[in-house]
Amino acid sequence: MSGTTEKAREEGAVDVPKARGRTAGVLGRLKKDRPLPGKNELYLMIFAIFMVMFIVGWNDASQGPLLPLLQEYYQVDYVIISLIWIAIAVGVVAAAVSNVYLADILGFGLLTPLGAFVQSIGYVLMCWGGPYPIFVIAYIFAGLGMGWQDAQVNSLAARMPHATTVMFMSHAVYGLGATVSPFVATAFVQRVTSRFYLYFTISLALALGTVVVLLLTFKGRSEDQIVGQRSEARANEEKPKDVTMVPTESGEVADLEVRGSSQKLKAILSTPRAYFLAIYIFLYMGVEVTIGGWATTFLIEERGGNSSSGYVSSGFFGGLTVGRIVLIPVTNWLGHRKSVYIYTVIAIGLEFVVWFVPSLIGSALCFSLVGVAIGPMYPSCVMIITEVMPHDLHTGTIGFIACLGVVGSAIMPFITGAIADRHGVWVLQPLMVALLAASMGMWFFVARASTYKQ
User: What residue intervals traverse the membrane (predicted)?
Assistant: First the structure.
């Protein structure tokens, strides 16, 4: 028997490394050759990506209009209510840590619907108006599920044909979800005040629908089975298998061989540009979610608004959507690096207007225009990842920056709530100006990063 095996190896009939690879993961599914999807199938897959981004945006924008009523329902102050953002961060950090490993085991086609299912568990815990500790724990599940989905769909979108357009459109759909949900949430606040938490049944239905669409559309495919194997992975099949990963003096990791999960994570954490990208997204997401979460309260307390001010969150995220669609040609013309500087300066100017001009309508309009200005920033950052990081680190790096981004989106609203509890919610504007200025400083280091030669 052993002689037969040795003979087969010598004749090339048995590729031992490939055979080992096929035993890994879920029944070796990720290593099997499958026909690439056709054009129509690819369109359905892009639609499924859009569904994921829609529900993530829906979730992120829900808190703003509900915040005043949540405080009243649970009898908590700004600081305690801000714990929901901390809970989301805990979930996303867990997703970022596990994403690299689970992506290698389950692949896109199983990990992404698993994320949507875990997100739906969070909504099950939210939709019956239970005790506040359970409500907070529910956001951990939501954050975990969204973290897995976010990393997977961004990595796939960055490898799709016409990647820039797909990336910007997917993030525009995120903005669409974030635009629609405040309308629905505000309707619940105004018409079903005593049972406003039933709003989360709609979120639950959307999440479960996303699970079904992902399973039926991708049929368990890995990322390589959707868009084709990466060129360096194909080349590595012909390389000797005793080649190891060695960091260069500059801190970059030589992409000599298809890396295991631990090697990928180590490579990401040893690359300075990954930290620049992550810190930038930390600051950016801090701005986006803090404005989306606190703009309604700001307008009610500082500009004399009423419960209809919840629609301003829709205006802000609607602006985000418009910016990610309308500014695609502008961003392509200017380039991702230069355009972010210009958009940030515009956003800072608009925040100064909100800060110093005491007008309800003017502030609401400026919040929407801030959304337009900052809209292209996140997708531009993801596209920069595809330029400056090795191919096999894209998914892990996106998961890493998404992790820091959600930490920023948790810490900054929490800090805003803590300061507002002591000094008033007017502090929203100086904090946003400071964060935008800091993000522009960090973008300097991101923009300097040279393109990685794949």
Answer: 42-58, 78-98, 132-151, 172-190, 196-218, 274-295, 315-334, 341-361, 367-386, 398-420, 426-446
